[in-house]
Design a protein that fits this description.
alpha/beta, globular, 389 residues, seven-stranded mixed beta sheet, four-stranded mixed beta sheet, single chain, 13 helices, 17 strands
């Protein structure tokens, strides 16, 4: 069958930038013409150790020689090792592996409803983002990603984020679970306030409401600790992770306390590819590197340096209205189109992201150097000058 060569065979679900990366290492990617870009996106918070980290690459090359895939009908040693590494370094006790953050959140939703069969509703929050499957789309608090997909799945109610007064309605709703992000990444990089979290945790504890924390973007060291909830001083019932877990390999995980995870029995949930030998190898090598090197500490140190530069830029460019976030998940609120700044940055060979129409999002690898941060500041200043000249 002949095809029109002017039309891409890919479905048009992305507005792609005119950048074609073919190679990556550390904090940099190179396009097909050999141009080098400073990458402050990390594949949307996925390559937390930078592109093609040697420790992960070595383990993957070894695994490629042995076994790529079998089935979750059999024991997969490396998968069980990864589950042990995750539980030993968290407050959770059992793990279900899947392929993405959306799938991890789907698993958490199903687990919550099985755990509380007499309750069906799950509370999420306005401006949240939990995925693009029908359940996670319905759970998300962003109308823009729901348009055209009605009827949405029932059983989700969105509360205002960081609103203390509204939490009193939790007792009236008595949901099966509350699901939230501790930093709303896609929703504009808004961190949760400590007092609000403290009150939320207390209500969930008192009324046996499962507390599910979506750490798909905040997990794996992104905010300065392995998991963001560690900084807030509480133990969730369920945590979902993906992105940074596999250093670019597709893997997701839903972790739960033992008493909660008992609701899953053989046949209640599954995944053909979830936790297969290659993905699990990438995950195990990644978490070992995060735990046994200074990557997380380095990310936190470089965050402070980066924020110093950004606050200086904020003084020089009044169009920058606010800088917020945790660790190396940083949002810069502007008074104009964030997309225009992203396009200007590409001209400077700098890759950055948006988090809504007026917010720039920075997600550099945890392994960045001070020189990388200095180079970013120069390139970002040039991009801002292009837009605001």
């Amino acid at each position: 069958m002949k095809t029109n060569t002017m039309i891409s065979p890919l479905m048009q679900t992305y507005n792609r930038f005119h950048v074609n990366p073919v190679k990556g290492k550390g904090c940099y990617v190179w396009d097909a013409d050999g141009h080098q870009y400073l990458d402050f996106t990390s594949g949307i918070g996925t390559c937390n150790l930078g592109h093609v980290p040697d420790a992960v690459k070595t383990k993957l090359m070894q695994q490629l020689e042995n076994l790529w895939h079998c089935s979750n009908l059999y024991h997969i040693n490396v998968q069980e090792q990864l589950a042990a590494a995750l539980t030993e370094n968290s407050c959770l006790e059992q793990v279900f592996f899947c392929n993405s953050g959306a799938e991890a959140n789907e698993a958490a939703i199903k687990l919550a409803r099985l755990y509380h069969p007499e309750r069906s509703n799950i509370i999420t929050f306005q401006q949240s983002f939990h995925g693009r499957t029908m359940a996670t789309l319905s759970a998300s608090g962003q109308e823009k990603i729901q348009i055209g997909f009605a009827p949405l799945l029932s059983g989700f109610t969105q509360f205002p984020y960081n609103d203390l007064d509204h939490l009193t309605k939790l007792k009236e709703e008595l949901p099966a679970a509350v699901m939230l992000e501790l930093v709303q990444g896609e929703g504009g990089v808004h961190p949760a306030e400590q007092q609000w979290i403290d009150e939320l945790v207390q209500i969930c504890t008192d009324d046996d409401i499962l507390l599910i924390v979506d750490e798909v973007q905040t997990g794996m060291g992104r905010t300065g600790t392995l998991f963001a909830h560690e900084q807030y001083g509480f133990d969730p019932d369920v945590v979902t992770i993906a992105k940074g877990l596999g250093s670019g390999f597709p893997i997701g995980a839903m972790m739960a306390k033992k008493e909660v995870s008992k609701a899953f029995q053989p046949g209640t949930h599954g995944s053909t590819f979830g936790g297969n030998p290659l993905a699990a190898t990438a995950g195990l090598a990644t978490i070992n590197e995060l735990q046994h090197t200074s990557a997380i500490v380095n990310g936190e140190e470089k965050s402070h340096i980066l924020l110093t530069y950004l606050n200086q830029l904020k003084q020089d460019f009044p169009q920058l209205k606010a800088i917020r976030g945790r660790g190396l998940l940083i949002g810069i609120e502007t008074d104009s189109s964030a997309g225009d700044i992203v396009k200007a940055a590409i001209k400077e060979k700098l890759l950055i992201l948006t988090a809504g129409p007026t917010v720039i999002r920075l997600l550099p690898p945890l392994t960045i150097t001070e020189d990388d941060v200095t180079l970013f500041a120069k390139k970002f200043r040039n991009a801002l000058q292009q837009v605001y000249a």
